[in-house]
Amino acid sequence: MDELQEARLQINAIDKEMAALFVKRMRAVEQVSAYKQAHGLPVLDAAREVEVVRRNAALVEDTTLQEYYVNFLRHNMQLSSQYQHRMQAGVTVAYSGVEGAFAHIASKKIFPDATLCAYGDFRAAYEAVVNGDCDCAVLPIENSYAGEVSQVIDLLFRGTLFVNGVYELEITQNLLGLAGATKKDIKTVISHPQALGQCAEYIRAHGFERQEAENTARAAKQVAESGDLSKAAIASLDTAALYGLEVLEKNINESSNNTTRFAVFSRAMAKSESNKDKQSILVFTVKNESGALAKAVHIIGQHGFNMRTLRSRPMKTLLWNYYFYVETDGNLQTEEGKLMMQELSECCDRLRVVGTFDHEILLK
């Protein structure tokens, strides 16, 4: 047997082993996909992919071969991602609004292969996940201009779902009218109250009448169906294309830094023992005694968890009683986090970790 034949036989044997390992790897990918589906996590995990390439490339000492191995790793991950997208085509995602609403846009960006299910309000979308009608829900929790979305924060406190991811979507409001309309024709603008607030100066400067709608996409649909050249919607560019409206003016929101944070809610909390690039949400009530809140805040800081947010919200069932919403840097599922929660339980009446997740991602 010559050297060429011997080398080819070796390659054949190695290829056979690699085929078996490939199948084994893809079976593990199936488990990853099932976990992501159960916990409302998207397929793409960019930070994980970077870490896999960095760690595994170091296993190849030959620097020339290492360059090819990096490409091999990336190709493997691309195949894994494609396979996960195929498996997650059956995932159902609830959102509040109609097609073209910002929640719909965010849901599509986070779960591009999922079936999106529209609901009339935040509670209905939330309950769809609780009842098992949907796998997860994408709901807004805060806008950089208008502040927290109180209805969703209250659901977060009273409900049973967990937050396994928070994503930022840049919001650009635009003036949309019927084909043939001009800005001079517009007398009334229709949109969601938050969008009207974000564009208050523009509306005031042009002397428009304001009319509220359930969300920006419904406003666009209403204008499209009205046939009235004097009416315009304030909504996204995606919505204009969806309902056949013309963009009369772009970027009319008062602040150029207009971002909405969307949380992904699911029935199970994702587990993570790592403290790297993590943040957490917890809610609690304190005992009705002097210094209880100060003690709780001190415990959080004492264990090294930096509070990004601390808010109070009125409890609906008890007059003049409040619960507290906290976002921290760090992972509350670590040993340090568990110790902190144990200490907090001594001064809190109700205490719940809502979720631990990677630092929020800006949706492109």
Q: Indicate the mean pLDDT.
A: 90
Q: What's the number of helices?
A: 12
Helix content: 40-55%
The SSE order reads HHHEHEHEEHEEEHHEHEHEEEHEEHEE
| Classification by helices and strands | alpha/beta
The portion of residues forming beta strands comes to 25-35%
Question: What multimeric state do the chains show?
Answer: single chain
Write structural notes for this entry:
The mean pLDDT is 90. The protein has helices spanning 3-38, 46-57, 63-87, 102-110, 122-130, 150-158, 193-198, 200-206, 216-226, 237-243, 292-302, 335-344, and strands at 92-96, 115-119, 136-143, 147-148, 162-170, 174-177, 188-191, 209-212, 231-235, 246-249, 259-266, 278-286, 307-314, 322-329, 348-358, 361-362. It is globular. Strands 1, 2, 3, 4, 5, 11 and 16 form a 7-stranded mixed beta sheet that branches. With 364 residues, the protein is α/β, with parallel strands linked by helices. It has 12 helices and 16 strands.
